[in-house]
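Collaborator request, handled under Task 6.
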Amino acid sequence: MSNLVIVESPAKAKTIQKYLGEDYEVIASMGHVRDLPKSKLGVDVDHDFSPVYVEIKGKEDLIKELKKKAKKSDTVYLATDPDREGEAISWHLAQMLGVDLSQQNRVTFNEITKTGIKYGMDHPRVIDAKLVDAQQARRILDRIVGYKISPFLWRKVRKGLSAGRVQSVAVRIIVDREKEIQAFKQQEYWSIDAKLTAKGHAKKPIAAKLYSIDGQKLELTAIPNEERAKEIIASLDQAEYLVGNVKKGVRRKSPAPPFITSTLQQEASRRLGYQSRRTMKVAQELYEGVELEDVGATGLITYMRTDSLRISTEAADQADAFILKTYGKEYLPSTRRVFKSKKNAQDAHEAIRPSDPSLTPDSIKKSLSAEQYKLYKLIWERFIASQMANALLDTVAVDINAANCVFKASGFTVKFDGFTVLYEESKEGDEENSTTLPPLAVGDKLNLKELAPNQHFTQPPARFTEASLIKTLEENGIGRPSTYAPTITTILARNYVEREGKALHPTALGEVTTQLMEEQFKKIVDVTFTAKMEQTLDKVEEGDVDYVGMLRDFYGDFVKTLEQAEKNMEGTRMKVPDEETDIVCELCGRNMVIKTGRFGKFLACPGFPECRNTKKIVKETGGLCPTCGGKVLAKKSKNGKNYFGCEHNPQCQFMTWDKPLEERCPKCGATLFQKTGRGALVHCLKEGCEYSRPVKSKASSGAEE
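Structure tokens returned to the collaborator:
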């Protein structure tokens, strides 16, 4: 008897083949095999929005092989990923290979382990038509929006642009934040901070902040300038500082739940500096299987596209056993934690967790790449910590009375570390330092050591990072776990948004395109409308909404909007403003501007067509070439990787992946470079000079890396 199992990727095929044995042949479809055509709409809008699918170009030989193997097999199992997209791929494969849709030949694996694969193979089912309808509904809707609006944008803004149901809203969110930042009016304010000591504790000052005057709590900007701050300080001259109230308590800190797709992307961004696309790529590798020493190909985590917080009883039992053995009984909560998923979560999968919690990160580190290890460690620690006991903090808050003013001081000490012994969730801008206060009682007199006014300025809202954008998209119900990473990738690739460090900000093109979309296609970039559409698509998946009817309702209104937009903008075109630089055109003396072409940004003379001067944008690093002494420039390879090279290339062929530093070599005076990753060090690349040191050590100048 011959059995054919079709999965999506070769890595997954290899892992599954190991567990199924000789009676099965496992082969990869390499993702989708059919899709809507690239050159035309591919949707018959006059006949119930029937999609016209074509074989994906370049997959002809693979499709022939799949058909040949399917014909020879007694049973064909469709084992693509366990989600909407995977269900659609299985449906397309069934259509192409002539597999009977009424047969129970669809299998899914929540984890690529012996247990997970056995369970999947023991529980085959028919292809879920509702899931397929939901995927088709999304694909057709996105195709209609993109195919109909994109040519309009080409004519009215610039060739090569695209619009999208989710991407256009994401850009609008970033543009709106930029408008808030631009409109922000900075306001000066002052705080008054005291340093005090208690009797017998002169070496341990208490930091206290002015909280109220004459019983009125101070708002953030209540002290508007230095003059007012000095008046308050003058009024406290000769004042006694007495402890007025001491409030002690115990604060419980609970662990964060195990990861779902969005929280994994956010935490990997904050803690590891990974972009969402990179996070999902590495997570896919961990899910599909990694070659472990003495074990072979093993899936290390459960499926990584999920918004459910559900955990299997078996996994929770394994976590409990590990915690009990490693940390002791007191580190287990009195009752097992159950985390509640959000309202619209799809509960088909568990949360993201290690497939086998007994495989600790350090025990398999040798078998993993550096990024696989870091991400697996993050997932493993988050899951184990989520099953651990609360941390307990002894807290104390003190009111300190001085004349007509009240100062406040607070502190905490860790009573029981609980889950924090292993892991604690990071938060942007969140810094909580453990501070202790000396024993204090009501009426205690404190000695004033320092009373200082401090100037501050109100801050505009922060630009979005990938982490905060994903959080905002999720909170507003825009997109689903599988769409966050590709959405961000698309808006960056289309040059609607740029990245500065971790911050995302709109380009002039992104702002102009969003303005046009807001004026002509208000609903498409409306957050509420898009969220409601997402809910409707979820109802298609649940079988509560007919997707053809939903598309019909959307399309009628959409066509009218498109026709009106054509009338509104007849004969007009929106100009994308150029970004002026201080680089002078050597041919005509004008300040050059930054333009964007097919291959990215470049400098151009604004005097075109009289002056056609163009240049590459050069990003200097401050470093000098160790080979010829020229400037070291930041460059990008063809596949988008950052590297550093000499300005005199190709005459001087110096290049390096290591980052040039401002610091000079103490041995020869050349630029020092920093190597990151495994074996990180600061070193000199000048021929004959072998100076190097570990990244964390101090240089001879006293500077610390």
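The cover message to the collaborator said: "The mean pLDDT is 91. The chain has 16 helices and 31 strands. Please let us know whether this matches your experimental observations."
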